[in-house]
Amino acid sequence: RKEVEQDPGPFNVPEGATVAFNCTYSNSASQSFFWYRQDCRKEPKLLMSVYSSGNEDGRFTAQLNRASQYISLLIRDSKLSDSATYLCVVTIPGKLIFGQGTELSVKP
Amino acid sequence: SQTIHQWPATLVQPVGSPLSLECTVEGTSNPNLYWYRQAAGRGLQLLFYSVGIGQISSEVPQNLSASRPQDRQFILSSKKLLLSDSGFYLCAWSVTGAFTEAFFGQGTRLTVV
């Protein structure tokens, strides 16, 4: 079993749609959780951290369920510029483990 | 502010040739340092991580090695490249001793021919 698993995608949605990404992790010792965004042929960049209480940043909402070892990212009112690959990231002592990513394509 | 430099941006190397990729971080001390590889259309695979000078942990046995000769310098090497070593190599750093996010260099796109 992979340490971090994400929806395989790709997700193709129209502008203005709401899209949700899911992620599960296997190591109960995981401490911190993040969502990264990676544009084509570029390095990953931090989108937002994920807290147990849930957190929101504009159109983006992240949720963490430690009991279920589940992380989610919700994007509301999708924009063309949201097209990218979204990576779920989990930290365990000393290292960050990435999911394989879910590709999002927002169409006009 | 902290910055991370990784070079070269692209590299084409013949099979059997050596490799040396360098990464340096500025503006922080004793960072955790990471090397990842991303094959085309795939996720990031952690290759090596380091919590201090001379301290290297290897995640995947392979044709590569890493060294940390200075606090903010991380080097990825190979004595003889294989075709399967082609990929997008990314260096990253995070704050030491904390479960914080990592920040990436711009990556090196390596093609072994």
Structure notes:
- By secondary structure, chain A is mostly beta strands.
- Helices cover 0% and strands 56% of the residues of chain A.
- In chain A, strand 6 and strand 7 form a beta hairpin.
- In chain A, 35% of the residues are buried.
- The mean pLDDT of chain A is 93.
- Chain B has 113 residues and is mainly β.
- Chain B contains no helices and 11 strands.
- In chain B, strands 2, 4, 5, 6, 9, 10 and 11 form a 7-stranded mixed sheet that branches.
- The A-B interface holds A 31-32, 34, 41-46, 49, 87, 89, 91, 93-101 and B 32, 34, 36, 42-44, 46, 49, 51, 57, 59, 88, 90, 92, 94, 99-107, 109.
Average pLDDT of chain A, rounded to a whole number, is 93
Average pLDDT of chain B: 92
Estimate what percentage of residues of chain A fall within beta strands.
over 45%
Q: Helix/strand-derived class of chain A?
A: mainly beta
Q: If interface size is counted as residues with C-beta under 8 Å from the partner's C-beta, which chains form the largest one?
A: A-B, 22 and 25 residues
Binned, the helix content of chain B reads under 10%
Count of helices of chain B? 0
The radius of gyration computed from the alpha-carbon positions of chain A, rounded to a whole number of angstroms, is: 13 Å
In short:
Chain A has no helices and 11 strands. With 108 residues, chain A is mainly beta. Chain B contains no helices and 11 strands.
Structural features:
heterodimer; A: 108 residues; mainly beta; six-stranded mixed sheet; five-stranded antiparallel sheet; 0% helix; B: 113 residues; seven-stranded mixed sheet; four-stranded antiparallel sheet; 11 strands
Q: How is the topology of this model organized?
A:
The complex is a heterodimer of chains A (108) and B (113).
Chain A (H helix, E strand, L loop, with lengths): L3 E3 L4 E4 L4 E7 L6 E7 L6 E6 L4 E3 L2 E6 L4 E6 L8 E9 L2 E4 L3 E6 L1
Parallel strand pairs in A: 2-11
Antiparallel strand pairs in A: 1-3, 3-8, 4-5, 4-9, 6-7, 7-8, 9-10, 9-11
Chain B lengths: L2 E5 L2 E4 L5 E8 L5 E7 L5 E9 L2 E4 L6 E6 L2 E6 L8 E8 L8 E2 L3 E5 L1
Parallel strand pairs in B: 2-11
Antiparallel strand pairs in B: 1-3, 3-8, 4-5, 4-9, 5-6, 7-8, 9-10, 9-11
